[in-house]
Amino acid sequence: MDISFTLPSLLQPADLMTLMRHIKESRNIVICGHHAPDGDALGSTLAWQGYLRALGKKANVVMPNAHPDFLRWMPQSQTVKNFRDHYAVARRLIDEADLFFFLDLNEMQRMQALGSYIAQHSRAPRLVVDHHLNPKTEEFDLMVSYPDMSSTCELILRLLIELGAYDDLTPTQATQLYTGIMTDTGCFSYSIADPLTFALAGMLLRKGIDAEEINKNVYHSWSENKLRLWNHILSKNLRTYPELHTSLYTLTRQTMKDFHFIRGDAEGLVNEPLKVKGMKLSIALREDTEEDVIRVSLRSTGGFQCRDMAEQFFNGGGHANAAGGKLPFPIEEAVKKAEEAIAAYADELKKPAERNIKD
Ligand SMILES: [Mn+2]
After folding, report:
1. What's the CA gap between 54 and 40, in Å, rounded?
2. Whole-model pTM?
3. Nearest Cα to 45, choosing from 222, 179, 194?
4. CA 29 to ligand 1 center in whole angstroms
């Protein structure tokens, strides 16, 4: 069976030439993703690294900090250097780099200290492949930016096809790319604006990857502590504002300690309250383990845009249905601030849930 479809090209011929020229002229390439790398950032950078290495380049992935434990199974993830735990080697790679690729991020700031270091110490060209809104074009030399796209992994796959590299795509790369598409779409349930996403996932399956195993590795590899933590938060800490179709929970360092929290244990928890029928907005306030700030996560559905709220109240930003920010307060004050935000949007939140908006 052969199902063919047309893939519109991502790049203008001139941009494709520029991209190819940059790759051709470089020897030492560093590929970076955003702070707190997720499945999409890790999958896209590693698959791109594989492509560049196959071309004979010295290519390395450098991340701002470590990826969560639930992604450790990903092939080659152990080769990633991060700017926090492998500072010396990461710095050496950056100092030697004659080309940078920044994947799954839209501004240098998204890499925190790693971004500042690169900005200050390197003049090598900076190329971006990304799907976040409002890219800071002026910070980069070439930008492949498609905010409509499900994931950066989908973009990288399309780019590889455009570069004629699909036939040589290895099962390892296909596994990495599939992970990013799967995680950024919540298992193919949101952020899919384009039916091609499914066709492209099918092209990855054709490489002989084990999609069931990937799914299990990501979603069914919980520790008992994590299960009990989620149960605790949802049964004891969740406040709901039923008239406003909103919920709010806090996660303190003490609770993390009680449940032997490890990085990644709260990942996805903020989506849970949205499983309640009619719920439009879920807010999570989490005490950071490294800095004295409260990390704010917002998830929304039913037509509510949470990005505006993140910008206005939480020093942050993001997508229409997934945004975040941070507050320099103790947790009790952060709760007050969140309730202020909810009150400010009360009229909109009161309305019954509508069909989701895309972004
Ligand atoms: Mn992404």
Report:
1. 21
2. 0.84
3. 179
4. 21
pLDDT in tens, the chain (359 residues): 566 678 889 999 999 999 999 999 999 999 999 999 999 999 999 999 999 999 999 999 999 999 988 899 999 999 999 999 999 999 999 999 999 999 999 999 999 999 999 999 999 999 999 999 889 999 999 999 999 899 999 999 999 999 999 999 999 999 999 999 999 998 998 778 788 999 999 999 999 999 999 999 999 989 999 999 999 999 999 999 999 999 999 999 999 999 999 888 998 999 999 999 999 999 999 999 889 999 999 999 988 999 999 999 999 998 888 999 999 999 999 999 999 999 999 999 999 888 765 44
Cα 122 to averaged position of ligand 1 atoms, centre (Å): 25
CA-based torsion, 242, 247, 250, 255: positive or negative: positive
Common-topology check for domains 13-219 and 224-350? no
Distance 62 CA to ligand 1 centre (A): 17
Ligand 1 centroid to Cα of residue 336, in Å, is 31
Question: Measured in angstroms, how far is the CA atom of residue 274 from the centroid of ligand 1?
Answer: 20
> Topology of 224-350 in CATH?
Diaminopimelate Epimerase; Chain A, domain 1 (3.10.310)
Ligand 1 mean position, distance from CA 86 (Å): 24
Which pair of tokens denotes residue 24? 């051709």
What spacing in Å lies between the alpha carbon of 26 and ligand 1's midpoint?
Answer: 26
Q: Which residues pair with 300 in a beta bridge?
A: 281
Domain boundaries, the chain: 13-219, 224-350
Say how far apart CA 265 and CA 82 lie, in whole Å: 20
Assign domain 13-219 to a CATH class: alpha beta
Neighbours of ion ligand 1 (CB under 5 A): 40, 104, 151-152, 184
**How many other CB atoms sit within 10 Å of the CB of residue 345?**
20
Bridge partners of 142?
127
